[in-house]
Write a structure and sequence with these properties.
This protein is α/β, with parallel strands linked by helices and about 350 residues long. About 35% of the residues lie in helices and about 15% in strands.
Length: about 350
C-alpha cells in the first residue's frame, strides 16, 4: 500500500499533508462524524454531537473495513456505520473492542453479524451483568444529573433567544439519553489473551495485550508498517479514568507500549498524539499517585480525607493544578492494596 494524501467531498473537507507523512491526510465531515486520516487509510472517527462518546478507528483496506470500538449506544453505532459509507463502499467485516467500558462497546449489538474481537477479560465483563457495572450506572446517573441541570437552566432563562437555544440543546441531550434504553450488550465473539494478527492484503493489524492498565483487558491495535497504534483508554494525552484501573501495573504496561515502533498514537478520547513524551509524563504521574495513596492507606487515612489531601501538583506538565484526587481513584487503589490479584 502506498501512503497518500486524499480529499473527500462529503459536507466539508480539508486536505492537509504533514511534511513527514505523520498526520493528517484528510478531514471529511458528515452530519454525525468527523474523520481524520492518520495515515494510509487509517481514520480517527469522532462524533460531532456535543455528547459524551468514544473515539472509533476506521481501517479502510482494499476490500473491506475493520472498526475499533462501537461507540456509546446502538444509535451512535448506526450513525458510524452510515458515516463510514461516505469514505468507502467496502463492507465492514470485523469489529475490535479496545476494552469493555460502555462508551466504547455498547454499540456492539449493531455488529452482531460480523466477528467482534476482544480480550478474554472484556468478554467476561460484557457477558456478566454489564448493565450493573459501576462505570455504567454512574454514567446513567450523570446523564440524569445533566438533564436536571439543563431543565433548570431553561426554566431560569427569560431571554427568548437564549431559551430557544437551551431548549434545542436539552432536546438533543434528552434524545441521547433515550438512546440508552435500547442497549443490549453484546460481548466479543472472538477472544484473545496476548496477541492476534488480522491480515488484510499487505496490511497487518496486530491486536496486542500489553498488560493491565485502564481495565484488566485493554488492547492496543498496532500497525507496524504505518507506525500507528490505537491505544483506547490505556493511553490518552493525559491521565485516564482510574476507577477500574491497575495503577500499580499501568506504568509497566505503558513501558511495553513504548517498546513498539510508532510515532503517533490514537487514544480512546481526544485527538491523535505525536508528542510521545506525554506517555513518560503519565507514567511518572501514576507512579507518584500510587506511592502517595499507598502512604495514606498505610497511615489509616480515610478515602474521603485522602482524596482531598493527596498533592500531585508537582506534575506541572500534565498539568495538575489543584490538590486532591477523585475519590473513585483513591477507593480503587485502596481496594488494590487490600485485595491484590
Amino acid at each position: 500500500m502506498t501512503r497518500r494524501c486524499s480529499m473527500f467531498r462529503v459536507l466539508t473537507s480539508v486536505a492537509i499533508c504533514a511534511t513527514a507523512g505523520v498526520l493528517i491526510a484528510a478531514q471529511p465531515t458528515t452530519d454525525t462524524h468527523r474523520f481524520t486520516e492518520i495515515r494510509n487509510g487509517i481514520y480517527l472517527a469522532q462524533t460531532t454531537d456535543p455528547v459524551f462518546n468514544s473515539n472509533a478507528l476506521v481501517i479502510v483496506n482494499d476490500d473491506d473495513v475493520v472498526l475499533v470500538d462501537s461507540h456509546v449506544t446502538p444509535s451512535k453505532a448506526r450513525d458510524l456505520i452510515t458515516a463510514v459509507k461516505t469514505l468507502t463502499p467496502n463492507p465492514i467485516t470485523a469489529l475490535i473492542n479496545s476494552h469493555h467500558h460502555w462508551d466504547h462497546a455498547h454499540g456492539n449489538q449493531e455488529f452482531a453479524d460480523i466477528p467482534i474481537i476482544g480480550h478474554e477479560f472484556t468478554y467476561t465483563k460484557m457477558s456478566t451483568a454489564p448493565l450493573q457495572e459501576g462505570t455504567y450506572t454512574r454514567g446513567l446517573a450523570g446523564n440524569d444529573a445533566r438533564l436536571a441541570r439543563m431543565r433548570e437552566q431553561v426554566a431560569a432563562t427569560t431571554d427568548a433567544t437564549e431559551r430557544a437555544q437551551l431548549e434545542a440543546d436539552l432536546e438533543l441531550f434528552a434524545a441521547h439519553v433515550r438512546d440508552f434504553d435500547e442497549i443490549a450488550p453484546v460481548p466479543p465473539t472472538v477472544t484473545m489473551n496476548d496477541r492476534m494478527t488480522l491480515h488484510r492484503e499487505s496490511r497487518k493489524i496486530q491486536i496486542r495485550f500489553l498488560g493491565r492498565a485502564h481495565t484488566g483487558g485493554d488492547i492496543a491495535v498496532y500497525f507496524p508498517d504505518d507506525k500507528v497504534v490505537f491505544t483506547g483508554d490505556m493511553a490518552l494525552g493525559g491521565p485516564s479514568y482510574l476507577g477500574d484501573g491497575f495503577v500499580d501495573e499501568w506504568p509497566q504496561t505503558l513501558e511495553n507500549l513504548k517498546a513498539l515502533d510508532f510515532d503517533v498514537f490514537v487514544p480512546g478520547h481526544g485527538s491523535a498524539v505525536t508528542d510521545l513524551n506525554r506517555i513518560d509524563l503519565v507514567q511518572a504521574y501514576y507512579r507518584d499517585l500510587w506511592q502517595k495513596t499507598a502512604a495514606k492507606h498505610e497511615a489509616g487515612v480515610s478515602v474521603t480525607e485522602a482524596s482531598q489531601t493527596i498533592d500531585l501538583t508537582n506534575h506541572t506538565l500534565i498539568p495538575i493544578r489543584q490538590v486532591g484526587v477523585d475519590p473513585l481513584t483513591v477507593q480503587r487503589i485502596y481496594d488494590r492494596l487490600e485485595n491484590p490479584d
